[in-house]
Design goal:
Elements (H helix, E strand, L loop, with lengths): L1 H8 E4 L13 H11 L6 H14 L4 H4 L9 H13 L5 E5 L7 H17 L3 E5 L3 H7 L2 E6 L2 E7 H6 L4 H8 L13 H14 L7 E5 L2 E4 L12
Parallel strand pairs: 1-2, 2-3
Antiparallel strand pairs: 4-5, 5-7, 6-7
Helix pairs in contact: 2-3, 5-6
């Protein structure tokens, strides 16, 4: 009973939109199943109506999408179906694990915009997991940067990204493409040098926490040496 309630309260959007849908079943089946398990629809007519609403809420045309199989959909469409399936049981928490990493670059922003919108419209708490720190800024009010399984910097997203105070956060941000910076070749040695400094400064066993600003914290060990990293 507790597990059933937990699964209703916490839903997941997986990284791979291609393997997270069963190829043997239609979109309608994928959305009807959670509704039936959690008693969201008391009749077939209710199910059809709710499935249409869910598809429309994620930007898909119900009449064109409902009876399709996963192989008939693009990657972006599949991920929209996954989001609709997660929303079907009206969860309180949505866990999105790298939801755009396997999508074409041209549609990643659309999916990020969709996640931000459904979070706002459904009053959801969302845990967005990513290796791409630039996309986190698009959907998160607060951010946690992790290194070697430990939190090393966390707080308000805008403050953390505009004033990164841990060497690992700085290294992550330096890897974000920036068209205003000149193209430099032969930079791998410099990157490895910087990465080695991060490893030496960021010992996971440290439990010292330092507040560096309003709602902005770092794991303090090695921070005094952070300035040795080159810009």
């Amino acid at each position: 009973k507790d597990e059933h309630r937990y699964r209703r309260e916490v839903q997941m959007v997986f990284q791979d939109p291609f393997s997270s849908l069963n190829p043997a079943f239609t979109v309608s089946h994928h959305l009807a199943r959670p509704l039936q398990l959690h008693r969201q629809g008391s009749s077939r007519a209710d199910l059809v109506e709710e499935i249409a609403r869910l598809l429309a809420s994620v930007g898909l045309e119900p009449g064109l999408t409902r009876q399709k199989f996963p192989h008939e959909l693009s990657g972006g469409q599949r991920q929209r179906v996954n989001i609709a399936r997660a929303l079907a049981v009206a969860p309180s928490v949505l866990v999105a694990d790298e939801p755009t990493s396997m999508l074409d670059v041209s549609i990643r922003k659309d999916i990020l915009d969709l996640l931000a919108r459904v979070k706002r419209e459904n009053d959801l708490a969302m845990l967005y997991i990513t290796h791409d720190i630039a996309t986190a800024a698009h959907v998160a009010e607060e951010i946690v940067v992790m290194f070697a399984g430990q939190m090393v910097e966390w707080g308000n997203t805008e403050r953390v990204l505009s004033n990164p105070s841990h060497p690992y956060t700085r290294l992550l941000l330096s890897a974000v493409p920036d068209g205003s910076r000149p193209f430099v070749t032969g930079g791998s040695a410099r990157f490895l040098e910087q990465a080695e400094k991060v490893r030496s400064l960021s010992r996971p066993e440290s439990t010292v926490v330092e507040q560096v600003g309003p709602n902005h914290f770092i794991r303090a060990l090695g921070v005094s040496n952070a300035g040795t990293l080159k810009n």
